[in-house]
Amino acid sequence: MFQNAYIPYKGYYCSPFAKWQGSFANQNSIVLGAETVKRWLTSMGWEASMFDYTYHGMTQAQSQCFYGSTWAGTMMGSQVPGMTIMQACSTSTTCIQTAALAVDAGTQKMPFCFLADRMSNGPHTIWPNPNGPGGEVISENWFMDNVNCDPATGSGMLVTAENVAKKAGATREQADELAIRRYEQYQEALKDDRAFQKRYMFPVEVKLSRKKSIMIEADEGITPVTREGCAKLRPVAPEGIHTFASQTHPADGNAGVIVTTKGRAMELSPDPSKTIQIISYGYARVEPAHMPAAPVPATKMALEDAGISINDIAVIKTHNPFAANDLYFAKEFGLDVNSFDNYGCSMIFGHPQAPTVARLVIEGIEEAVLLGGGYVLIAGCAAGDTGAALILKVE
């Protein structure tokens, strides 16, 4: 359990998410993200020089990512050390947890978690193979090859989802109804001219040429989910429950979260009466090819460390690349599956990997503020049949 790690109220932002091959598709995600951070800091009246370390989260290699956090920091206006963290879908969770550990230990005072990824136009790598016929190289499609095959099990991610759906006794009808419900919840964030999203979402400037740029202010490429539309879709896997409506889609985006002490968090906050404490962290790895089940034991660890139960949680946000994630999670904890993931989730707004959970953290904080405070749980699965969970306390 953490003792002195806090997130300043409004000490975070998330960009809009652009669907696969959208407006961010040709932008280096590190450059685009760092430039967005710099603009965001200016809008808040802050400077990157206040950070003493940078945790740079990414999963998809970009040009010159060898320099990772230090290059990003320089573009933001900060000359501090840092590290790059690659933890698949739980990259944000790992960055925030690592930053909280450093603040709690007193080795860092104000680290910045910078998350940026681009699923579009991902790298296609080649590896030397001197013993291959004619020196033929080994090639890898960085994103698609790994989504379709975990080298430890030989199974793709959809296989893991269908395995957990069977474990939960979930049906195609339940998956469709959940997809419809999650889309309805996302619509709540768009009401009143996107009032909820504007509490945290910061626009991204995309440079099309030296003289021309466009500003992306809202999520791009969201597909409406209707009962009629779901009925027309076939399962992606034979005899499976998941269609394209009940699973996430690849996306591009970036996000940032400040972690610091309570005193510094209050100094930065536009409303010092609101405090956001990082309480606990949980992790797990489940049986092979059962990835969507992993958030359950990870959550149990985080709850035990915090000394609370699932019934004490005011806001639950899940990274749900598949409907099976939430159907299994709800069954194991005895929850109404329709009661969590208000205002949005990755099933609907997409999955740029590194910044995905950061957005869930931020939305969970804002929802808790609207509710008057309470515990916030953010849980999700990640490649390799792993899961991670964070618990925050908003007062």
What does this structure look like?
The chain has 395 residues and is of the alpha+beta class. The protein has helices at 29-44, 68-76, 91-105, 144-147, 157-168, 172-188, 191-194, 227-232, 262-268, 295-306, 323-333, 346-349, 356-371, and strands at 12-14, 18-19, 53-57, 82-85, 111-118, 124-127, 138-141, 204-207, 213-216, 251-258, 276-285, 313-319, 374-382, 386-394. The relative contact order is 0.21.
Features:
395 residues; alpha+beta; 4-stranded mixed β-sheet; 13 helices; 14 strands; 21% strand
Helix content: 25-40%
For the biggest sheet, the summary is: 6 strands, mixed
* Overall shape: globular
Which residue ranges are poorly predicted, with pLDDT under 50 across at least 5 consecutive positions? Answer: none
Radius of gyration: 20 Å
The structural class is alpha+beta
Order of helices and strands: EEHEHEHEEEHHHHEEHEHEHEHHHEE
Summed up:
The protein is α+β, with helices and mostly antiparallel strands and 395 residues long.
